[in-house]
Write a structure and sequence with these properties.
Length: 494
């Protein structure tokens, strides 16, 4: 039987084979990962650990497998981003205003995963209310990336907002984790931590029970160490949900079944506008290398234009804060969450929200309230929505000439904690490559493709047509196989 270290190095696919063959039990797999979670506490990736729940889930899983009732994720230890409501387990969006909140209901995505036999290890730390690109805005403190630059032991950010999930997966403290992507919050941390991050088409996964940031953009997705694992996870997570009006009633394909179909004849679009200022030479070179890998596998490169890409980031930082200001209005100290009393109702509102929300969340609420206010709605919000429509049209026109788009995930590698937190504009530029696909509601995946000169992982991004995740998985599988990426961080605290 594999030892504890080898068990945490497994993928979902390889763990499934061992579980099916009886070489290991779900309980043994859970025990190894519970120890791994404890071992990486210095990274601050988990904000709540659930070892008793994990062992109970594992024992139930072993019983189901013995009875021939194994699900898609039977016995697989996973972590859940703190944005997903989990029945009876702390669910706070990593914010003081929801400190101590334990829901009496389960998000649809996590309910789907438990139905398929997944084992819950705990909840992962994140940027407060998913607002951030570095996982430094959490009430629980910053998450550390398990990777370090060669010769430099300064702690690095894992990316955000799903930084805790990305760090936990990279550090071998779960086989997979859930994330949410509003403007890159699955893909960017996946790139920074050297894992696979898949954002499905908007509407593929239910948003019911996921604490809202920007409702027209938020989308759940898997974070894993292989493309095959992402395919397995997404199939378990996805599905129509009548409780979510934006959920699309489409059958969920067997994404794993198409992985090895290759890319021969596929047209790979290279958007010229993505060669942005500030992109490192290493990432430019990796982008070219990625195209060569796909060409060698039989794909055909196509030059495409997405002319409104430069307007995507400013449009996003109008639309997303506007929706956030509306969604977060519910946190007023009256019905649930933190309450700070005052002399009257207005003062209670002010004190509750002032003390309950962190600086970044307050900043975005203020921006959102401003662009929605009388006299500015037409000048800012309405104009941003028109730009969003133009961006979606750009993608539609590009996909008339190609099947998949290839671009870098981020313009640079992971950076030290504290380096950008005082410069919001620089921080927002982290998402410049990811935001356009989010505004258009398209599926996109970040695949680790190499290491920088300083020894840090770099990711490449593939973007697909709406609800054509299958083609995206095919291209991602070729990318993964061609890169041969097998980097593993030296774990702090290990």
């Amino acid at each position: 039987m594999p030892g504890p270290t080898e068990l945490t190095d497994l993928t979902i696919a390889s763990a499934r084979e061992l579980l099916d063959g009886g070489s290991i039990s779900a309980r043994e797999l859970a025990e190894a990962h519970i120890a791994a979670v404890e071992n990486i506490r210095p990274l601050n990736a988990y904000m709540a650990e659930t070892p008793d729940r994990a062992l109970a889930d594992a024992d139930a899983s072993d019983a189901r497998r013995k009875a021939g009732q194994a699900g898609l994720l039977e016995g697989i230890p996973v972590a859940i981003k703190d944005l997903f409501c989990t029945d009876g387990i702390l669910s706070t969006a990593s914010s003081k205003i929801l400190e101590g909140f334990k829901p009496t209901y389960e998000s649809t995505v996590t309910a789907n995963m438990w139905r398929e036999g997944a084992v819950m290890l705990g909840k992962t730390n994140m940027d407060e209310f998913a607002m951030g690109s570095s996982n430094e805005t959490s009430i629980y403190g910053p998450v550390e990336n398990p990777w370090r630059r060669d010769g430099d032991n300064r702690p690095l950010v894992p990316g955000g907002s799903s930084g805790g999930s990305a760090a936990a997966v990279a550090a071998r403290a779960c086989l997979a984790a859930t994330g949410t992507d509003t403007g890159g919050s699955i893909r960017q941390p996946a790139a920074f931590c050297g894992i696979v991050g898949f954002k499905p088409t908007y509407g593929r996964c239910s948003r019911w029970g996921v604490i809202a940031f920007a409702s027209s953009l938020d989308q759940a997705g898997p974070m894993t160490r292989s493309v095959r694992d992402a395919a397995i996870m997404l199939r378990a997570m996805a599905g129509f949900d009548a409780k979510d009006s934006t959920s699309v009633d489409l059958a969920v394909p067997d994404f794993e079944a198409v992985l090895d179909q290759g890319v021969k004849g596929l047209r790979i679009g290279i958007p010229r506008e993505y060669r942005v200022d500030g992109m490192s030479d290493e990432i430019r070179a990796l982008w070219d290398q990625g195209l060569d890998w796909l060409k060698d596998a039989g794909a055909v490169p196509v030059d495409v234009s997405l002319p409104h890409s430069a307007s995507a980031l400013p449009a996003y930082y109008i639309i997303a804060p506007a929706e956030a200001s509306s969604n977060l209005a519910r946190y007023d100290g009256v019905r649930y969450g933190r309450r700070v009393d005052g002399d009257d109702l207005t003062q209670m509102y002010s004190r509750t929200r002032g003390e309950g929300f962190g600086a970044e969340v307050r900043r975005r609420i203020l921006i959102g309230a401003y662009v929605l206010s009388a006299g500015y709605y037409d000048a800012y919000y309405l104009k941003a929505q028109k730009v969003r429509a133009l961006i979606a049209r750009d993608f539609d026109q590009a996909f008339e000439n190609c099947d998949v788009l290839l671009a870098p995930t981020t313009p640079f590698e992971a950076f030290p904690i504290g380096e950008m937190i005082g410069d919001p504009l620089s921080m927002y530029l982290n998402d410049v490559m990811c935001v356009p696909a989010s505004l258009a509601g398209l599926p996109a995946v970040s695949v680790p493709a190499g290491l920088s000169k300083s020894g840090l992982p770099l990711g490449l991004q593939l973007i697909g047509r709406p609800f054509d995740e299958e083609t995206l998985f095919r291209a991602a599988q070729v990318m993964e196989q061609s890169s041969g990426f097998d980097g593993k961080p030296g774990l702090r605290g290990a």
